[in-house]
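Action item from last meeting closed. Structure (298 res):
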């Protein structure tokens, strides 16, 4: 088992440091209206304003990944691109540098399809992107079509919400799988976490955020019965059935206390290599767990 700790973003991540707002506004005139000064007199955007964050994402995707047409339906998760890119760059270290035509499965791609976009544009990887939500699948397909990525990224509806790989991986070999699991066990937990997040944002703002607990993210994106650990344990058990069809299985783990439980079940299942990559971005700590059943991958 390997434990890797890294402070700051991956060296290949282009989003370390402050946003280049001048570059972003050049590529997205809509973003300009959301730029304001923080208490230190620095240009920034209001991260409590969902429209501002949406326009920031559009500008980042256009400026760094050449994506001209990207949007998500109202109420769906609008992902922070720097952190999403970091996941991609860290798992790139698991791939053989000599191997071409790498294929990756993104489990729960959401309406935003952000991981396949970043992975394809950064490394040329081909993707299968799955989701259990028909609206998310429809919007992801729209994004892929509008950016002429149909030969690079295939979107699939997972018809059985209890499966991760069944019904998605057919006869092809998949080099890696990735997933950003639902964090919470219930709507109540999700709302409570959102309120805390907004309270923390208020501490750095000159004006209060709206009391409305209105946030991006549908049920499947934010919570599931049993929460993150049950979700991950089910994935681990099913991964054994696809041991010969997948190089490395990977997933984010948001809660540190879930790491040992996952290590325990993966050892019991016979994983030959388990890696924990801990990423520290400011005050936030996030983790990637990666495992394989193939001793050649070690």
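Sequence:
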């Amino acid at each position: 088992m390997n434990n890797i700790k890294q402070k700051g973003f991956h060296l290949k991540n282009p989003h370390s440091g402050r946003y280049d707002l001048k570059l972003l506004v050049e590529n997205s005139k809509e973003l300009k209206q959301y730029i304001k000064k923080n208490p230190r007199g620095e240009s920034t955007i209001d991260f409590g304003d969902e429209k501002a964050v949406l326009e920031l994402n559009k500008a980042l995707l256009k400026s760094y990944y050449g994506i001209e047409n990207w949007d998500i339906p109202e109420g769906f998760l609008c992902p922070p691109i720097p952190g999403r890119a970091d996941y991609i760059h860290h798992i790139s270290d698991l791939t053989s540098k000599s191997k071409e035509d790498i294929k990756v499965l993104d489990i729960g791609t959401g309406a935003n399809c952000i991981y396949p976009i970043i992975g394809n544009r950064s490394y040329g990887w081909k993707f299968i992107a799955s989701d259990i939500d028909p609206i998310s699948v429809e919007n992801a397909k729209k994004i892929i079509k509008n950016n002429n990525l149909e030969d690079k990224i295939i979107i699939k509806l997972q018809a059985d919400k209890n499966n991760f790989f069944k019904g998605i991986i057919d006869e092809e070999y998949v080099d890696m799988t990735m997933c950003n699991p639902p964090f919470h066990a219930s709507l109540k937990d999700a709302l409570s976490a959102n309120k805390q997040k907004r309270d923390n944002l208020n501490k750095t703002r000159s004006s209060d955020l709206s009391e409305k607990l209105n946030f991006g993210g549908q049920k499947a994106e934010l919570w599931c019965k049993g929460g993150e650990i049950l979700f991950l344990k089910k994935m681990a058990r099913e991964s054994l059935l696809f041991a010969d069809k997948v190089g490395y299985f990977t997933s984010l783990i948001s809660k540190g206390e879930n790491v040992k439980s996952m290590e325990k079940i993966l050892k019991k299942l016979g994983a030959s290599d388990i890696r924990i990559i801990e990423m520290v971005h400011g005050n936030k700590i996030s983790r990637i767990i990666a495992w394989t059943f193939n001793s050649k991958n070690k």
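Note appended to the action item: The first strand starts at residue 2 and ends at 7.
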